[in-house]
User: Fold this.
Amino acid sequence: MPPPASSIAVRAEALVKTFGSTRALDGVDLEIPAGTVLGLLGPNGAGKTTTVRILTTLLRPDSGRAFVAGHDVLADPDAVRRSIGLSGQYAAVDEHLTANENLYMVGRLYGMSTSDARARAKELVNRFRLQDAADRPARTYSGGMRRRLDLAGALVAEPAVVVLDEPTTGLDPRGRLDTWEVIGELVADGATVLLTTQYLEEADQLANTILVIDHGKVIANGSADQLKAQVGGERLDIVVAEAAELPATARVLAEVGADEPVVEEHQRRVHVKVETGPKSLVEALRRLDQESVNVLDVALHRPTLDDVFLSLTGHAAEEEQPAEPEGKSKGRKAKSR
Assistant:
């Protein structure tokens, strides 16, 4: 069979991987058009990291096929490694080297000349705001600085496909926004990005297409708006002044809502899915006023990716799930040597 068309930068077909009695992947298919971002979402243990490791040649599937930048990951792994940059869940940097030395080393491993490797290292040090620590050993860096250095290392060779496995884990809000900006610049320059993340806001912000997997199977695929449309309706949130008012509030929202209301006692909040939007809000407030409920805050929300995730998997994205069997990998970069 021929490799995928040039317009498709990454393609996986019916990937299966088992670890003992655990079926980590159970027939995963995906496609990433060139120059776009695919957000890979799922609970911990769903198969995200297994998928990433197969696509980056760090793990062989039991069955199925995958192509990256036109190269078969099994038949031509060296060509795949020359075409990708990988930033894993854990910062993979040499703690005894400085930022400049780490990035220079990566450049040389990719076959860059001495001058080009040094220039690229300096460029990326500045881009990731590491210039003040550029000549200090990485062992003196904070966790966030190590994550930025690791991401910079994945971009040294300006790869056609960039694989980012939870790239903003451990970063402060400024670092996360900086990383989002870099990802946007990569795509604007023509790169293709595979992004796994636990931050649903991140996928909503960056991904052209979102793939949700659970128990090794793809359970949803589409743009953020398409996935939100599957949930349907809007969510009405009511915050009351006293916890004693929650039962009456829940009763009213059960009457005006399209589903069972959810009560969050510690926040004195009740929310429910509604089908008629503003009309439901007005009716709820009228009835709550009749019940003499003191409403502190009210809001009407479109479905979010959190709602999608909860609807598809049965729990919130931040809830801990069993880790994938190979989840102890330290996120090595795939390099050409």
The chain has two domains: 8-228, 234-302. The longest strand covers residues 8-19. The first helix runs from residue 48 to 55.
